Structures are given as C-alpha cells and as structure tokens.
Amino acid sequence: SAVLAGHVDYDGQPGSFYNLGALERGDAIRVDLDDGTTHRFVVTRVKRHAKSALPTDELFTRNGSPVLTLITCGGDFDRSSGHYTDNVVVRAALRG
Fold it and tell me: Measuring CA to CA, which residue among 96, 79, 2 is closest to residue 40?
C-alpha cells in the first residue's frame, strides 16, 4: 500500500489535492515514478471521515493487494482551530 497526503488548500490557494473529493468510483489515477514507469489505479471508494475517526488501521495496512490511498482535509473549516473537521479519503486498486 501507498498512502499520499496533500493539502486541499493553503493560505487561501488551492492545494495539490484541491479536487480530490470530486473523484468518483471508477475514475483512473496514474502515478508516474522517477524511473519512468507508470502505475495505473482505479478509484474504488471516496469517503469522508471525521478526523477523530480516521480508520488508520485500515488505511495504513501492509497486507493484501496493492492499494493507493489519497488523503486530504474536508468538511467544515473550524476557524478557531484553523483546521478542517474531516478528512477526504480516496482508495484505489492497482489496474492489471
């Protein structure tokens, strides 16, 4: 498994994962590596979790088939804490 986290926004500007929540089941994700190889994944699930309830045991697994997990902030922005209340989590399976 690989887990990548990125900002939804920062200092009023869109972040690298700004549109992550717009992905849908079946969408393609391509990961290009420095060695010139490309891995293709297909989105299997897009879900929002409260930050306090992020299923880390499930997301950071080391067993099973290759899975790509992308995480960013979502939900409401709490101005008092300066953080979003939720995380958007996209899971994608390796395409054969």
Answer: 96
